[in-house]
Amino acid sequence: MKRPTLFLVGLTAVVGFLLGLVFSGSRGFGDARSALARPVAAPPPSQPLQVSSSAATMATVGVDFSVVAARVNGAVVNIDAASRGLDKPQSRRYQRDTLDDDAAAKEGSGSGFIIDRAGYILTNHHVIEGADRVTVTLGDGRSFRASVVGVDPAIDVALLQIPPTPGLPVAPIGTSDTLRVGEWVCAIGNPLGYVHSVTVGVVSFLDRKLFDPSLDAFIQTDAAISFGNSGGPLVNTHGQVVGITTAISSQAPNIGFAIPIDQVMSVLAQLRDQGRVSRGFLGVDLTSATAELRKSLRLGPSKGAIIEDVAPDTPADRAGLRVYDLVTAVDDQTIRSAEDLDRYVAARAPGTVARLTIWRQGATHVLPARLTERPLPRSAARNAGQADAVRSVVNREMAPLGLNVKDLDARTIRRLNIPDSMVGVMIADVDPAGPAQLVKIRPGHILLEINRHRVSSTADYQNVIASLRPGETVALLIYLSRTDQRVIRAVVLDPQ
Q1: Cβ neighbours of residue 318 under 8 Å, at least 6 residues apart?
Q2: What are the backbone dihedrals phi and psi of residue 26, each rounded to the nearest 5 degrees, phi first?
Q3: I want to staple 112 with a disulfide (CB 3.0 to 4.6 A). Which of 123, 204, 211, 393 is the partner?
Q4: Helix (DSSP H) and strand (DSSP E) numbers for the chain
């Protein structure tokens, strides 16, 4: 074989080998962090990844994202939210997954993930905001009506619960504090209705400020995130949840944001036990003490938070804080930046007294401030932050299927172009927060049978539904006049 030929064959082999690798900093799967007070069994450890000797000499190790996704995918759920009212709150803070036809029922969809075998699920607040009905569908197709345990609009988190069910998969919870820029992550969710989609990217930035600088600490990623991903998990290379995907850039398709999981875990007990989150509030605007500001303001200490503004009739105002004061410590804990002070105050309970050490015109003072409760940001203030903002009320007039029907007459048969031999009732109205709405049953469809029982009149319909039991799964045979076809739909009745 000629020497140039040998060179080309060798070069082709090397390039083919390198293209077959995806590099990251995997060290194997760790134990899941307990999501609630009750411990949850961690999944069995994975087998170590097999890496060739030549790849092992490199600084990173190949990651099989099919293994990573398999660890979490079963715990990812689809969330459907529906509202009967036409005045359903629309969060402007986040791009909302919703139908915007004002004449139609408001519907939203998103993702979530199970964190406990008792049926607790984390998602975004904006996914379920203002809903009358929240339905959770598992990866195996089972659907449950969910209750809203608690919401925190300030960081856009909601805690749901479905009935405890044997065999519920649980997502392993990791930590976001150890994330590094450039680290591989994957997002799992239901973008645009394509359930359980997995996308891969890297951490592009940490601690990104978008809406509220005093609370925001978003993880920025270029893993593809679209409408429907909201509330789904952002997963590290160990198969652990490190964030909740929540927002996308309106200007670039490859810029998405996730709430750090550690920020969520810090308020989880309040969500579960109180249904809401209370944070301490001081009432100041802050900036960090940079070298330039230290020089121009002749500040002594090298670190701290400079007060830019003091709101009237707030704890800061009552404590005597002033513009240009430099806060260097709270309760003897060093404050190095404005973010340090914001996070410390937010973590304190309303009503507690914070002792602030300040530097003012060459002298140090200690001022006590009794914290009040942090108000909701304007973008989240439409709902009071209470779990009962999601009403989940059953429409008794249309129960149990969430339908109103009427007899077929000659005019309706002609208008809908229904065969003269068709026997059934026309669906006149569908409860937008009822069980039939979820399986895409709409006004104008013709109901032929319920559980194989023919429905030839409204009287037949009433007799059949009177025998249905709460929580039962009901098979409906439906005729679609537009496509001239019969379809079967399974409707899960409300438990009560």
Answers
A1: 369, 370
A2: -75, 140
A3: 123
A4: 12, 29
From the candidates 126, 197, 342, 481, which is the catalytic residue? Answer: 126
Q: Which of 439, 387, 437 is nearest to 129 (CA)?
A: 387
What total of structural domains would you count in the chain?
3
pLDDT at 106 over 80: no
Same domain, 77 and 162: yes
Distance CA 417, CA 333 (A): 76
Q: Which two tokens stand for residue 173?
A: 């919870």
- Whether 8 is covered by a domain: the verdict is no
What pLDDT, on the 0 to 100 scale, is given for residue 494?
79
In order of 329, 346, 351, 354, 425, the CA distances from 332 in angstroms are 6, 17, 19, 10, 74
Cβ atoms of 94 and 124 within 8 Å: the answer is yes
User: What pLDDT is stored for residue 227 in this prediction?
Assistant: 82
Going by the DSSP 8-state scheme, the letter that residue 349 receives in this structure is P
* Amino acid code (one letter) for 239: G
367 assigned to some structural domain: yes
Least confident of 62-71, 108-117, 244-253: 244-253
Q: What is the mean pLDDT of the chain?
A: 80
Q: Could you confirm whether 126 is annotated as catalytic? A: yes
Six-digit token pair at 285? 């605007």
For the cut 50, the answer to whether the pLDDT of residue 25 exceeds it is: no
Q: Look at residue 191 and tell me whether its pLDDT is greater than 90.
A: no
Catalytic residue among 176, 230, 262, 445: 230
The whole-number pLDDT of residue 275 equals 93
CATH no. for residue 302? 2.30.42.10
Does residue 59 register a pLDDT over 80? Answer: no
More confident residue, 102 or 420: 420
Q: Is 156 a catalytic residue?
A: yes
Both tokens of 19, joined, read: 């293209």
Average pLDDT over residues 135-146: 88
Provide the domain limits for residue 364: 280-373
Strands (E), 20-83: 23-24, 61-62, 76-83
